[in-house]
Amino acid sequence: MLGIGIVNLSSGMLTIDPFPPAIQIKPVDQDKVVYSSLAGTRTYDISSDHPFIPTKDTWDQKDNDGEQVAPGWYEISYEYVIIEQDTDKRYTANPTARFQIVPPNSDMNKDLEINQSVTAEGITVILERIELNALKVAVYTFTTPPGYKLPEEHPPYEFESLMIDSVAEYSVDGGTVKHVRAGGGKADAAGITLTWDNLDPMPVDAKEITFTITQLGEWESHWEFKIQLE
After folding, report:
1. CA separation (Å) from 137 to 94, 142, 200?
2. Which candidate, 38, 96, 30, places its Cα nearest to that of 69?
3. pTM score of the predicted model
4. CATH value at residue 18
5. Which of 6, 34, 115, 158 has fewest C-beta within 10 Å?
6. How far apart, in whole angstroms, are the C-alpha atoms of residue 190 and residue 48?
7. Are the beta carbons of 99 and 74 closer than 8 angstroms?
8. What's the CA dihedral at 149, 155, 158, 160 to 10 degrees?
9. How many CB atoms lie within 10 A of CB 80?
10. Residues in the chain with pLDDT < 50?
């Protein structure tokens, strides 16, 4: 599925011409268009009262001749004109975005229960599980900060601190170290679960992830975990 959202940030009426916009997809750093979709034959007005219009379409990863395109990085682009109805000024828009088509079965797809615990600075962190698929890898950790208590009416201070200021790094089979931040979580009476859900997909032949939390809210240390993938 692909699409864009067009937002009217002005106080007047805008016209999108044509609608829906034309689409082109081509390999990154190449001029050859592998897929294109013709523009529509109408226009679309966006008012300040209803300033957002999304467009959606699907692409089956086949080129204009009906053949499956090769794995790799691609760029999708749209083209349309924005017309200010109050002034009749016209602006050409050409938004683009990049995405990757991965080879079939090239990334690891499994869920692992880990339950490793590491203590540093008097704080124990448990790496509970890891979820791996072709889009991303998510790591789930749990901790009970010192003096933690769950208030009845609002999230505890420790939860907000951990959500904002928690940083980790990871590497695969001793390779390049990459940095990530906590992307979500939840708090209950026992403690705080953090979700680190922006790790890159793992190659299908990867053997080990080293995942190290270097900052946990206001605490800095090294909570290091070695996760066997085989």
Report:
1. 32, 17, 6
2. 30
3. 0.59
4. 2.60.40
5. 115
6. 47
7. yes
8. 180
9. 25
10. none
Whether residue 97 is found in the same domain as residue 141: no
What is the total count of domains within the chain? 2
Q: Which of 67, 101, 135 is the last residue of a domain?
A: 101
Tokens 């990085």 correspond to 73
Among candidate residues 175, 161, 156, the one with its CA nearest the CA of residue 219: 161
Identity of residue 49: D
**What is the pLDDT at residue 153?**
62
Sign of CA dihedral 224, 132, 60, 39: negative
Paired residues of 118 in beta bridges: 125
Residue 33: how many other CB atoms lie within 10 Å: 14
- 91: closest CA among 16, 32, 20, 8? 16
Q: Which two tokens stand for residue 53?
A: 């219009």
What pLDDT is recorded for position 65?
Answer: 94
Residues spanned by the domain of 14: 2-101
Handedness of CA 187, 188, 190, 196 (dihedral sign): negative
Q: How far apart are CA 46 and CA 15, in angstroms?
A: 6
Residue 77 pairs in a beta bridge with: 24, 96
pLDDT tens digits, one per residue of 26-40: 998 888 999 999 999
Neighbouring residues of 230: CB distance < 8 A, sequence distance ≥ 6:
207
Rounded Cα–Cα distance for residues 204 and 163 (Å) = 30
